[in-house]
Amino acid sequence: MPIHSIPLLCRFLPFLLLLSACGTAPIGEGMYQVKAGDTLYSIARNAGRSVGELQRLNQLNDNTIHVGQILNIGMGKPATPALDPVKTKPPATTPAPVSKPKTPAISLVWPNKGPVLRAFNGKSNKGINIGGAAGSPVYAAASGKVIYANQVRGYGKLLIIKHNKDYLTAYAHNRQILAKEGDNVKQGQSVAEMGNTGSDKVMLHFELRFKGVAINPAPYLP
Questions:
Q1: 221 in helix, strand or coil?
Q2: Is residue 107 a part of any domain in this protein?
Q3: Alpha-carbon torsion (57, 58, 61, 67), positive or negative
Q4: Phi and psi torsions of 14, nearest 5°
Q5: What is the pTM of this model?
Q6: What's the mean pLDDT in 167-190?
Q7: Is the domain of 197 the same as that of 128?
Q8: What's the CA gap between 192 and 10, in Å, rounded?
Q9: Are residues 122 and 216 located together in one domain of the fold?
């Protein structure tokens, strides 16, 4: 190992001691271990926080994170890790399924009037893709607060609006974002312009999430 790498290793040694046998599971209350495919946006979204909050909590200069990295998601104090993560494994538990509302608890408007290019399937597409012309307006599907307005790999220029404690909507591949983090926006307000950032074609990728889980927006749209 190069000598110049030793201080860096020592710096991250306390975090390496927190790794569990599962490797990708949450370390404890208020802490999260980055797994393959995670982005700072997805971790913030599932924790109900903004990317800016996670950057401040973890003293990050940008959105760069690494697999295995331990992040403070600000929901409490981390649990004391086992001293021997290989031999000591947590008891197997089955996570409780996220309950979906039986009746719509939120009413949306279409974020753009273009044609639906691809519908929600919950696997390869966790939202709906809407076609249109570059620069056409993207509207807030419901009133709420902007919790993210920045660029994310795979989503391009991404805008996220939190509507209440359960629901948020995401608007991806924008050419330009017109709202900023912390803004309160009204339903039907123009918040972005359609584009093709992070995509091979001009479109709006629109997601509806209930308690962090992507659900089909169709039943909530007129």
A1: coil
A2: no
A3: negative
A4: -60, -35
A5: 0.56
A6: 97
A7: yes
A8: 44
A9: yes
- Which residues have C-beta within 8 Å of that of residue 203, sequence separation ≥ 6? 114, 117, 129, 130, 131, 132, 173, 194, 196
Is 210 in contact with 166 (CB distance < 8 Å)? yes
CA distance 219 to 215: 10
Residues 120, 213 within the same domain: yes
The whole-angstrom separation of Cα 193 and Cα 136 is 5
Q: Are 151 and 196 in contact (CB under 8 A)?
A: no
> What integer pLDDT is reported at residue 74 of this predicted model?
76
Domain of 24? 3-72
CATH of the domain at 36: 3.10.350.10
Residue 78 within a domain: no
Average pLDDT of the chain, as a whole number: 81
pLDDT at 22: 35
Same domain, 120 and 204: yes
Looking at the fold, whether 141 and 212 belong to one and the same domain comes out as yes
**68 with 164, same domain?**
no
- The closest of 121, 125, 117 to 194, measured between CA atoms, is 117
State CA 107 to chain mean position distance.
22
CA angle 22, 24, 26 (to 5 degrees): 95
Q: How far apart are CA 55 and CA 72, in angstroms?
A: 10
Query: Averaging pLDDT over each range in 17-26, 38-47, 71-80, 133-142, which range is the top one?
Result: 133-142
